Amino acid sequence: MTNSSFFTADRTTHLKIVVISLLASIAIMMVGIAARPQLTVDPHQANVYKPAKAIVAVSNTLSEVH
Q: Alpha helices, DSSP H only, in 1-66?
């Protein structure tokens, strides 16, 4: 049997394709995780942003949707 076509390939050829694609996806994930920037933030120096006073918007007008 010839393995030159995807449709005429035997079972071991399909298995090889699946294994190689799995290994390639694992390698890409490892590179992506390793390329993450390292955060060097001191937890004692973190900036805390507090919002201003809460504002409530109320309207008595009725709107009609056409």
A: 11-34
